[in-house]
Amino acid sequence: xxxxxxxxxxxxxxxxVSSASGIDSLFFKANAAYNNQYYEDxxxxxxxxxxxxxxxADLYYNLGNAYFKNDEIxxxxxxxxKALKLKPNDEDIRFNLDVANTRIVDKIxxxxxxxxxxxxxxFYNMFTANTWAKISTGGFILFIVLLSFxxxxxxxxxxxxxxxxxxxxLFITLFAFAVGFQKYQHLLNQKxxxxxxxxITVKSSPNPNSVDLFVIHEGSxxxxxxxxxxxxxxxxxxxxxxxxxxxxxxxx
Length: 252
Prior knowledge:
Number of helices: 8
Structural class: alpha+beta
Strand order of the largest sheet: 6-5-4-1-7
CATH superfamily of the largest domain: Tetratricopeptide repeat domain
Largest sheet: 5 strands, antiparallel
Number of strands: 7
C-alpha cells in the first residue's frame, strides 16, 4: 500500500512538473512568435495556455498585444480589460487599452463622477483583492504580537506602546479586510462585456421586434445588468440602458 501511494505521488508530481514545463514552453513559443511578427501563431499559443486553465495579467496583456498587432481590435480590448482586472494599476495595460479604444467607432462620454467617489476608486484600486487580504493577514499577525507584549510585559511603558499600537494595527487590519472583501465581491458580481458585432442596435426589451434605442459598434464595453433567455440588459458608460442578444457580446 505504501509503495502504491509513493508511486502515485511521484506520478502526480511528474505530471504537474510536465504540465508546467509544457505551459512554459508554449509561453516562450508564443513570445518568440510575437517578436518575429507571427501574430496568428502567438495568438494560438497564448490561447492554448488559457484553454488549459491558466490566467495572469501578463498572459492576457501579451494576448491583447498580439490581437492588436493583428488588427483584431475588439479582441485586443477584451484581453486588455481582463489583464486590467488582475492588475488595476498597471500603467502599460491601461495605456495600451486607451490606444486600442481610439481605434473603435464609439466614443462614449462617461457620466460625471463626484470627486470623493473618484478619490475612493483610485484608493480602492491601489491593490488587488489578494494584496488587501495579505495586508489584513499581516496586520492580524502583528496585532497578536503586540497583544502578547501587552499581556506579558511587566514594563508599563512597553504595555502602553503595545496597547495603542495594537489599536492602530487592528483598525488597519479590519479596514484592509473590509476593502479586500468588498473588492472580491465586486469582482465576483460585476459583469462586463465587449461588443463583438460590427454594428448592432440596442433594443428596448429582450425581443428583436421591440423599439430601437441606439446603435453600438464592436469594441465598446458594456455593463451587464440582467439576463432574460438569450438577451442581456446592458448599460453603457453614459448611462444609457437597453437589451442586446448574448451572441453579440463576450464577457470580460
